[in-house]
């Protein structure tokens, strides 16, 4: 019997291929499993089983030595390696795509301001679930919101996932941490009448921008990068093809995910406002000039001033996007269609973010099931 981790190969003319005894010069090679790559590493092929076993023994010993060295690395060491790889494009996100510059800036800021001062000098292999839960609790005691804490944990999540795949830690302690407060699932959304009032109260040159956020649900970066060539009033579609990074040195970028490239319907309340604009196809729709995008802080300040004067509760562009999703759900859009129009990477994100707005309570499920089983319309039960 061939030992584990040793492959034996017979020649084409060997009698074993016809059920007989071996009558060829067999070749052997050893292998060890590489968890980081998810595949075996093979040694050289030779005619001696003993040589293949010797290679495998040496390879296993070298991997154990490397693992002991890796386990001595601090959390800071792991972070610096991960961050350099992510910046350089050799480390990808879970979708196999390069990390966006904006995401890396957020990771770096969270690491530098919150994680590194407390955990950076600890050996990564020594940090356990109890240590990270205590870290979360200290952040909460310091007044950090659930959303802030969740974002703070992102750098730890990525380095622990990588270390676990490479066999450098035995478990991922970032899983199942108790975060303070209720889940941030109830984003503030405006009513149909409320959104219309908010848009009407704005200066005339700002209404189309906010209407596109409230009725089409584009992200802030997508609004900044939108060009007139992307707006098809005849087909009643906005084609999202790009976004704009907050870093002025970066400028125009690819959309957030592959699913972010999409076509979004232009509804009637939005069409009229967009029709009042429009010049050169290459011009930015909402730019301060044909080539310079709007400044979010300026847009936010002008809107807040107008809404305060009208006695209206302010909203952010992000909340306007959530409002657009709530309108689509109220209009009967299914989860898959909503996911596509919102540009989510997958429908599970749509359910996690907007499931609380969708029909489907336990009582309603019971009514619909009863109706199906007795062959009646569910509204009559």
* Backbone CA Rg: 29 Å
CATH architecture of the largest domain: Orthogonal Bundle
Order of helices and strands: EEEHHHHHHHHHEEEEEHHHHHH
**Which assembly state applies to the chains in this document?**
single chain
Mean pLDDT: 84
Describe the structure.
By secondary structure, this protein is mainly α. The chain has 3 domains: 66 residues; 91 residues, DNA polymerase, domain 1; 166 residues, Intergrase catalytic core (hpI Integrase, Chain A, Orthogonal Bundle), CATH 1.10.443. Helices cover 47% and strands 8% of the residues. The strands form 3 sheets. It has a 3-stranded antiparallel beta sheet, with helices on one face. A 3-stranded antiparallel beta sheet has the order 4-5-8. Strands 6-7 form a two-stranded antiparallel sheet. Helix 2 runs antiparallel to helix 3, helix 7 packs antiparallel against helix 8 and helix 13 packs across helix 14. The longest helix is centred in the N-terminal third of the chain and has 23 residues. The model has no long low-confidence stretch (mean pLDDT 84).
Fill in the keyword field for this structure:
8 strands, three-stranded antiparallel sheet, hpI Integrase, Chain A, DNA polymerase, domain 1, 3 domains, 47% helix, elongated
Summarize the structure.
Strand 4 and strand 5 (237-240) form a beta hairpin. The protein is 47% helix and 8% strand.
Give a topology summary.
Blueprint: E1 6-9, E2 27-34, E3 39-42, H1 49-71, H2 75-88, H3 101-119, H4 129-141, H5 146-152, H6 154-165, H7 192-200, H8 207-216, H9 220-225, E4 231-232, E5 237-240, E6 243-244, E7 252-253, E8 262-265, H10 268-275, H11 296-310, H12 317-330, H13 335-342, H14 347-354, H15 362-374
Antiparallel strand pairs: 1-2, 2-3, 4-5, 5-8, 6-7
